[in-house]
């Protein structure tokens, strides 16, 4: 497992004004939570944005190398607990980290990625991707980066389930094995339009009104 290292400094000042000032310098305010304690820190915005938006670090184990007094540093294994971003610009605004023990099991969500197109789609079927993440339980050092699904053999009317995922030793999937990851359904066939003759037959017959000539014929009788 590749080690993801993020360098950070302690953040003595807190508040909205201080946070805005940090962002203007390319830093992002963050907090590390550990056993009821919280430590305000600041991290490089570009590095953290790349980790989160690429999907690599959102559920992965991250090691924060914390610079405490300019000379002393300490390492803290963490998971991303939450993050905030601007809804318009998508700029990363704040990150919350949760420090974890490398010897205790954790529960995290792991992405499910389709790597090959189902044969059913090539035959005209419609791919439906139902499940994009599954929950797993494992040690922080064993967290999978993602689950790759080879869906090439899935035909029309068939599906792949959580039970079909390949799991490494030491990783337990919490999500129900019966959950459907993807399926291929039959293409939708449009119904033929009703024939014009049938439409005409359904219309009521018009009654012809009697004209003057018809009335004269009746009077002669």
Notes on the structure:
The protein has 221 residues and is an alpha+beta fold. The chain has two domains: 4-99, Ribosomal Protein L25, Chain P (Beta Barrel); 106-185, Ribosomal protein L25, C-terminal domain (RNA Polymerase Alpha Subunit, Chain A, domain 2). The chain has five helices and 13 strands. The chain has helices spanning 16-24, 45-53, 119-122, 196-202, 212-220; strands at 4-10, 27-34, 37-44, 62-67, 73-85, 92-99, 106-116, 126-129, 133-138, 147-150, 159-161, 172-173, 180-185. A six-stranded mixed barrel has the order 1-3-2-6-5-4. Strands 10-7-9-12 form a four-stranded mixed β-sheet, with no helix packed on it. Strands 8-13-11 form a three-stranded antiparallel β-sheet, with no helix packed on it. The radius of gyration is 33 Å and the shape is elongated. The mean pLDDT is 85.
- Poorly predicted runs are none
Kindly state the number of beta strands: 13
Q: Provide the succession of SSEs.
A: EHEEHEEEEHEEEEEEHH
Report the span from N to C terminus.
Answer: 109 Å
Kindly give the count of domains.
2
- Neighbour order of strands in the largest sheet: 1-3-2-6-5-4
Largest sheet: 6 strands, mixed, barrel
CATH-assigned homologous superfamily of the largest domain: Ribosomal Protein L25, Chain P
* Shape, principal axes of CA atoms: elongated
Q: How many separate helices?
A: 5
Helix percentage: 10-25%
Rg, Å, rounded? 33 Å
Structural class comes to alpha+beta
| The CATH top-level class label of the largest domain | Mainly Beta
Question: Hey, roughly how much beta strand do the residues contain?
Answer: 35-45%
What integer is the average pLDDT? 85
CATH architecture of the largest domain: Beta Barrel
Per the CATH scheme, the topology name of the largest domain is Ribosomal Protein L25, Chain P
